[in-house]
Amino acid sequence: VQLVESGGGLVQPGGALRLSCAASGFTFSRYIMRWYRQTPEKERELVAAIGSFGGSTVYPDSVKGRFTISRDNAKNTVYLQMNSLKPEDTAVYYCHAQDYKEYWGRGTQVTVSS
C-alpha cells in the first residue's frame, strides 16, 4: 500500500499550488480521502475530505473558498487545489485514506513566503 504526495514547494502569498496523491495497493474508489496538514507548533489539522465517489466534500472554515479537493478514481489519485495561499498555510500536507483500514502518505512540504 502506498500514498505518494507530490506538488508541494515554495510559493508567494496569493499564489496557488496543486497537490496530488497517487494511491496504490488498495481499492481506491472505496475509500474516503482526506488531506491534513501539520506544523511543529500545531496538531495535525484536516483541510479537506471527499467521499468515495466524490459526491461530498468537507472543508474547515480556514480554507473554505480557497482549497478544492477532487479525485480521479480511474487514476487512483486525489488532488488538492490551493488558491490564494497565505503564510499560515505553510505546513507539511498529508494524504489520508480511510475505509475499514486507514493509510497515510509521507507528506509534502508547502511553504508560503515572500
What does this structure look like?
The protein is globular, with a radius of gyration of 13 Å. The termini are far apart. It is an all-beta fold and 114 residues long. Strands 2, 4, 5, 6, 9, 10 and 11 form a seven-stranded mixed sheet that branches. A four-stranded antiparallel sheet has the order 1-3-8-7, with no helix packed on it. The chain is built from no helices and eleven strands. The protein has strands at 2-6, 9-11, 17-24, 32-38, 45-50, 57-58, 67-72, 77-82, 91-98, 102-104, 108-112. Helix content is 0%, strand content 52%. Strand 7 and strand 8 form a beta hairpin.
- Shape estimate: globular
Q: Cα-atom Rg, whole angstroms?
A: 13 Å
Give the amount of beta strand, in percent.
Answer: over 45%
- Give the number of helices: 0
Helical fraction equals under 10%
| Helix-strand topology string | EEEEEEEEEEE
- Would you tell me the overall average pLDDT? 96
Content-based structural category: mainly beta
